[in-house]
Amino acid sequence: MKQMPFAPFDLPEAQPFLLEGSDTGFLFFHGFTSTPQSVREVALAVHAASGATVSCPLLAGHGKDPAALAQTGQSDWVGSAEAALETLSARCARVIVGGLSLGATLSLNLAARMPDKIHGVVSINGSTGLYRPEVVAPLYEPQGAAFISGIGSDIAEPGTTEICYDRIPRETLKERFLLTNATGALLPLIRQPILILQSRRDNVVDPQNAPRIATSVTSSDIQLGWLERSYHVATLDYDRGLIAERITGFLQRCTA
């Protein structure tokens, strides 16, 4: 077996990055247990087409190992998002936030709480607290395992892989549920333009989160688009080009 010279999390594509551009900023968050690799291709396409400054940070506890994730919680991920927003706001006059999965949840959370700093929000397969009971109940079993199997690489296109953890700390999943449910309660505070993209077949997040977001926010500019060919990690899947096009058009509308 050929041995890789370094761990996947050390690969260049898994690192946080900044693409310099105009004074319009797009802050793009990766998902739970993942890295910027999962959104990199879409970010590059958006930057090339729009000329915007694009920032893709690494969330706390990610890009190392599951044990590192176990040392973090929802306040740490929110803190990472807020710090990245402050940094991008210092160099851009207008900032649009967006993300995949947990990254979308964080984007919705920031948009609800910081409307003066955010001019638009993009949610790609975002979670807002819709979970089946059989998914949540095992997290509270007294003798439950410390780690459960990972949820990454839910991708329809063969041969495409997401760089992510293969195990998830059970206690950390509770933190994720806390953040997603709290963000769902905050949705009516979102008044900025919003683009919601959701895979029809999503094996990680309930697709009904998309209409829930669309009907809960109080924005007068709501765009909801369904992704027909991709699974959960849509930014690495068949619809990644379409996603980049939709985000580019949304950025142009937000800054027109």
In summary, what is this structure?
The protein is of the alpha/beta class and 256 residues long.
For the structure shown, list the relevant keywords.
256 residues, 8 helices, two-stranded antiparallel ribbon, disordered N terminus, 7-stranded mixed beta sheet, alpha/beta
Task: Give an overview in words.
It contains 8 helices and 9 strands. Helix 1 (37-50) crosses helix 8 (240-254), helix 3 crosses helix 4 and helix 4 crosses helix 6 (170-186). Residues 1-5 have low confidence and may be disordered. By secondary structure, it is of the alpha/beta class. Strand 4, helix 4 (102-113) and strand 5 (120-124) form a beta-alpha-beta unit. The protein has a 7-stranded mixed beta sheet, with helices on both faces. A two-stranded antiparallel sheet has the order 6-7. It has helices spanning 37-50, 66-70, 74-89, 102-113, 133-136, 170-186, 209-216, 240-254; strands at 17-19, 24-29, 53-56, 94-100, 120-124, 147-149, 167-169, 194-199, 222-227. Helix content is 36%, strand content 17%.
